[in-house]
Amino acid sequence: MHTFEFVRPADSATAVATAAQANTAQQGADVRFVAGGTTLLDLMKLNVETPARVIDINRLPLDKIEETPDGGLKIGATVRNSDLAHHPAVQRDYAVLSQAILAGASAQLRNMATTAGNLLQRTRCMYFRDTAMPCNKREPGTGCPAITGANRMLAILGTSEHCIATNPSDMCVAMAALEATIHVQGTNGARAIAIGDFHLLPGSTPNRETVLEPGDLITHVTLPPPVAWSRQVYLKLRDRASYEFALASAAIVITVAGGKVTWARVAMGGVGTKPWRSPEAEAALVGQPINQASFCNAAEAALRDAKPQSENGFKIELAKRCLTHALQMATA
Amino acid sequence: MQATDIPLDMTINLTVNGARQAITVDVRTSLLDLLRERLQLTGTKKGCDHGQCGACTVHVNGRRVSSCLSLAVMHDGDEITTIEGLGTPDNLHPMQAAFVACDGYQCGYCTSGQIMSAVALLKEPCGPDDADVKELMSGNICRCGAFGNIVAAIQQVRKNT
Predict the structure, then answer these.
(1) Residue B159: band (very low, low, confident or very high) from pLDDT cuts 50, 70, 90
(2) Cα separations (Å) of A253 from A26, A67, A170, B83?
(3) Pairing state between β A73-76 and A65-67
């Protein structure tokens, strides 16, 4: 591991000012915030991340969960995933988020990993993690060996000819379905970013994964007020029963009246280059009766633009069945 | 950013198994390496060194973490408990005794991580069934395959406390 300067700023403003000296907030950043460390330390050991300065934000007052005046929830950047999953308000009003977090990683890692860190979780693509291999995300312009290589775990939605890496987060999928807002403090003050606008598609710049710029510090995430009578489910399908990344997952927030879907939010994990909200599935569901045919139609709509690679074509059918089954669970 | 005049070492204060101490470490030192290489607390094991196996599990302020994915300098002021702080050969922690009674190991390499996880689990939200225990113990891999006996040991302690 390359060495680095380790600093612990007294407040968020100092943290922002220190980070603002970075060359980028994306891949190749020479300044990084550390909270849980579960992604950053892992990648620093692999020399995929080589920051010259690491800013410890663990002692900043960003670890609270509070109800907002409008009845929503404010989740601090350094709230640990386990604390978020077990918080009474989350379990009561945002069950899909609790389920998604508890479906990810292990109890040890959930005790370390944070809200902001999970938003910035990096892909598990083996070529990205191996500095002996080319990778457009890690070293722009070197190529994507995954497209002709081992791509069974990789994405089928949102890919480009430059990158097919999957976003590995479960938490972000639930937050996409809950329409979370990410709050950032930067050199020009505070701003709010809808989660759908936060992560970027790889396009021709897969090294850019989010809209964050140097100095940007995620301070908290807000969730809108819970949707009355909504039913929520997170379903995750993977190679083993626990402690494994998703092959396909689905987050459902749905309301039903008179046997018909009145409102729906659908997002998928394990299949997209970013947490994958599906407005196509949502539109296909609203007004339809809650039955297998409606759910299959929605799943078809969600995967219509899916592009299989050499080893992951199975994910298209798997994702459809995951979505269909999650809808059945949510409306049963 | 210029990487000059960087202090490579930092001094931290932390309490390990009840003993408070000041230690100067290279900033790159993981909590795991600090425990094993500097404090000679070699009961905590290094398996994968990437948070994938659980052999390095210790308690930080009473909660289980993977010590390989944490920098020692992030733990200034924290309380660390390792397997050495849990019990002694003459005075085993009930979980250690249950692992012996249930034969919850073969080679033993993962065992201290398993036991540290299991002790933390006792204070976490966990359903009553074996399946609930298996889910919350999934971060600790045993290549010998002692999982069945590990679950039995944990359930024995849970039923007796």
Answers:
(1) very high
(2) 31, 20, 15, 43
(3) antiparallel
| Chain A contact for B24 (CB, 8 A cutoff) | no
Mean pLDDT of chain B: 95
Domains recognised in chain A with CATH numbers: 231-331 (3.30.390.50)
Q: Which amino acid is at B126?
A: C
Residue linked to tokens 């046997």 = A259
Number of domains in chain B: 2
* DSSP SS3 for A232: strand
Choose one of B53, B85, B117: the last residue of a domain. B85
Q: For residue B76, report the phi and psi dihedrals to the nearest 5 degrees.
A: -55, 125
Residue B138 and residue B120 share a domain: yes
Residue B6 has a pLDDT of: 64
- The structure's pTM equals 0.97
Q: Are residues B121 and B57 in the same domain?
A: no
Least CB-CB distance to A3: which of B8, B54, B68?
A: B8
CA-CA-CA-CA torsion for B67, B72, B74, B77, nearest 10 degrees?
100
Q: What is the count of residue pairs from A and B with beta carbons less than 8 Å apart?
A: 97
pLDDT tens for A148-177 read 999 999 999 999 999 999 999 999 999 999
